[in-house]
Amino acid sequence: MVATRIPAVNPKQAGLLTRLTYWYARRRFGEVPEPFAVLANSPKLMMAAGVHESLVERASNVLPANIREIAVYRVARTVGCSWCVDFGTMLMRLDDLNIDKLKFIDDYATSPHYDEDERAAIAYADAVTATPPTVTDEQVTDLKKRFGTQGVMELTYQVALENSRARSYAALGITDQGFSQGDACRVPWA
To answer: What global pTM score does this model have?
Structure first.
């Protein structure tokens, strides 16, 4: 097991709020996601992140799930966050989305596995993720025609949020945990 740069907080060392968060995470995901356990080193930030993620999840209801998830997956892959790729694959599988197409993401522009809406969202995710960003007026105009203004706002927020997650987790040395493999999930403090 690869150790994170900041150690995960073991449930035996955790306060009540963190233990409750771990209980909820195990119930929802089958195991405690390692980012939760590392962020538990700062319980206030862990709670803030949890509340934020819950609110964003509830507010993200304009874009079709396949568009949102494929754009987020592309960011995770581009940034190089193996944990985000792993967890994102699980979320797509649980939403009954086609995860087989992920093998072709590098060739999304020409692959028959992607439709035009997915291609536009992936290209936008690439443009937002580039340093510096390379988003064009034409891209946004096209996305507004496809998904409406609220859809563009949701896509932009989700892509930016995944950039934040992926960069934070990579910086902290958080790597894939086995979520995409079903129940074979490595426990952060095992």
So the answer is: 0.94
